[in-house]
Amino acid sequence: QVQLVESGGGSVQAGGSLRLSCAASGSILSFNGMAWYRQAPGKQRELVASITSGGSTNYADSVKDRFTISRDNTKNTVYLEMNSLKSEDTAVYYCNAWRRFLQPYWGRGTQVTVSS
Q1: Of the candidates 26, 1, 10, which has an alpha carbon nearest to the alpha carbon of residue 78?
Q2: pLDDT, tens digit, for every residue of 71-89?
Q3: Shortest CA distance to 56 belongs to which of 77, 73, 74, 71?
Q4: Burial of 53 by CB count in 10 Å (0-12 exposed, 13-18 middle, 19+ buried)?
Q5: CB-CB contact of 73 with 29 (8 Å)
């Protein structure tokens, strides 16, 4: 079974940077795309960024120009580079991988805390 493991979360000051990693137990090329979601306390899980198998990327308006999603197919790893972090970026960040017509896979999440 496919497993996704996030890492790289932590606590930073506003304006700082973090890089999250999502390591997959299998080939990420087997998915149509992968994504990062986040969920703040009391809020719905929100799509942050996605990358398709073809390399196309999309971002939530709230993070565009600050976050960058990328992948290393040889390492079966997807990254989320987060710059200019704001307090509202505080959330648990989850890795997601999807395939058409199938339910997606989820990681367990990694906490990102941004203090003012």
Answers
A1: 26
A2: 999 999 999 999 999 999 9
A3: 71
A4: middle
A5: yes
Closest CA to 105 of 41, 45, 24: 24
> If you write DSSP's letter for every residue of 7-25 in order, what string do you get?
E--EEEETT--EEEEEEES
Q: Region 17-38: what's the mean pLDDT?
A: 94
Distance CA 97, CA 31 (A): 6
> From the CB of residue 49, how many other CB atoms can be counted at a distance below 10 Å?
23
- What residue ranges in 1-116 does DSSP mark as E strands? 4-7, 10-13, 18-24, 33-39, 46-52, 57-59, 67-72, 77-82, 91-98, 105-106, 110-115
CB neighbours of residue 51 within 10 Å: 22
Structure tokens of 34? Answer: 């992968």
Token code pair at residue 84: 């200019």
CA distance 102 to 22: 20
